[in-house]
Design brief:
Length: 281
């Protein structure tokens, strides 16, 4: 996978449009449209990249993938480190899929709208934000749009960040000077941050089964310590429970948050997350 951020990106939808003869298409996953030159056997993209029409025919049924031209062929925006990561197009911002599991809500929802709802639940007005699980950066960038002063965003996986660098919707994560990106494990890094420094924390971890310690009381205590008095936390929990495993994630999360000192806990049905406050003078 190329490391550049400006590679033209093609989806099944883009391929179909070109094959149907449309010369104005999006090569940045819907953010803009450009003109391409279609020949008898290939299409020339802005910047000089050339893609064979036969290559486009091969991806018209790959609606769950994003591709970029390299070395005379099309390659998937994906990565591997023992787990398989890939970028998946949606009706809005693309989502990240890890081992077949999507990292954003995409049913009747786009990932950018998902981030807007989660950040909106905090009611951000200026201040400093900690984003514990950067992913593709949508929550961090949405916090900036909501008016925060800057964001410290933590991401564990270099593979996730490689894909983010290919994603035009993530560009601000690397180019906006108000985003301070840390690479490492939130479980350890949050404990190294200044006490009482943040006005808001957005905690949108992977599923409980994949990152259980990010749902634990020890980690919650560190987030509580990092918040200033009067600061607010949003914690995405996903579905409130599993009838098959008889595990109520939401109930356990709220109990542990309360146990480390958070108060005014509220579960938001629409965002499937909990907001709470650090009470103090």
């Amino acid at each position: 996978m190329t490391r550049g951020m400006a590679a033209p990106l093609l989806t099944a939808e883009t391929a179909k449009s070109i094959l149907e003869g449309h010369t104005h298409v999006s090569l940045d996953l819907g953010l803009s449209r450009v003109e391409v030159a279609i020949g008898d056997e290939c299409v020339k993209l802005p910047g000089g990249a050339v893609v064979g029409l036969e290559d486009l025919r091969r991806i018209v049924d790959r609606e769950d993938s994003v591709f970029f031209p390299e070395g005379g062929t099309l390659r998937q925006v994906s990565s591997w480190d023992g787990r398989f990561y890939k970028l998946v197009p949606t009706g809005g911002a693309p989502t990240l899929e890890i081992e077949g599991v999507r990292m954003h809500r995409t049913k009747d929802m786009t990932p950018d709208a998902d981030a807007a709802e989660k950040v909106g639940a905090l009611g951000i007005s200026g201040g400093r934000v900690l984003d514990t699980c950067a992913g593709l950066g949508y929550t961090a960038l949405e916090a900036l749009r909501k008016g925060c002063d800057f964001v410290v965003s933590i991401e564990l996986s270099p593979e996730v960040l490689r894909i983010a660098r290919m994603n035009p919707w993530s560009r601000g994560l690397f180019t906006d000077g108000r985003v301070h990106l840390l690479i490492g494990d939130s479980y350890h890094l949050v404990g190294a941050l200044l006490e009482g420094f943040f006005d808001y924390i957005i905690h949108d971890p992977p599923r409980f089964a994949h990152a259980g310690r990010l749902y634990g009381g020890e980690f919650y205590a560190e987030m509580h310590r990092a918040l200033k008095a009067g600061g607010n936390l949003f914690h995405y929990t996903g579905e409130p429970g599993s009838r098959h495993r008889r595990v109520d994630v939401r109930k356990g999360v709220m109990r542990r948050l309360r146990g480390v000192g958070f108060r005014r806990l509220r579960y938001h049905e629409e965002t499937m997350g909990v907001t709470c406050e650090k009470i103090g003078r």
